[in-house]
UniProtKB/TrEMBL annotation:
It is a multi-pass membrane protein. PROSITE patterns: MIP. One of its GO terms (molecular function) is channel activity. It comes from Cephalotus follicularis (Albany pitcher plant). This is MIP domain-containing protein.
Amino acid sequence: MPETEVGTPTVSAPATPGTPGGPLFSAARVDSLSYDRKSMGRCKCLPVNAPTWGQPHTCLVDFPTPDVSLTRKVGAEFVGTFILIFAATAGPIVNQKYHGAESLIGNAACAGLAVMIIILSTGHISGAHLNPSLTIAFAVMRHFPWMHVPAYMAAQVSGSICASFALKGVFHPYLSGGVTVPSVSTGQAFALEFIITFNLLFVVTAVATDTRAVGELAGIAVGATVLLNILIAGSSSGGSMNPVRTLGPAVAAGNYRKLWIYLLAPTLGAIAGAGIYTAVKLREDEVDPPRPVRSFRR
């Protein structure tokens, strides 16, 4: 019976770029929210011929093997997005059904509190993106690997649609109250969605990628930003800040009015917000060494 080797060091995940003691960007300039080398897909191949024992074979096509770590992250994104869309959309639906029982403050609190609890509960697993605009912005700023973007976006879209149809089954026929449609002009709605998403990603980039920020308060900071943005824009544009916040309810209710605003404006605002914080962020040689704090990023 083989014996376990004695003295073998415990294998641990490599230091995530941007964490205390590690560089913000790795050699490949990939600084990922919830990214490490273990999540890189491994490959199996389709052999051209059938080799004899002990001889190598020639591969025609390499197929990536699904990675357990990435699968868990995508699963956490699905569940987190489901919870967020269910809570953020249920507030306006209840408001419509019970004639203003929630009010704008209640709607904002539903979304802000949902974001906060999801970041605190799943941020250490997937980074709690919950938002395709955030995922794209982080990939553009090289804080997240592009190869994981399709999987994250698929989880976010499917989680949103599932939550919206769940709400349709529970609150039918009041789902229309949860669809974000502008009550102002197209230009005003576009500008509002751009600005409030800019605000959101400026804060998210600070607490998620800067080791000098207090990462333990990430959930509170991001949730409060969502609440504030909905108080600002909720009555005008709906305060979406998130393409899947609008897409899922729109699919379930069959209402696609001005949908393009909520797909394009948040994405542009997210890239701008992440880019501006990256530009104004202090460099490592301009401040004292960072404190040993933890962030919700991995």
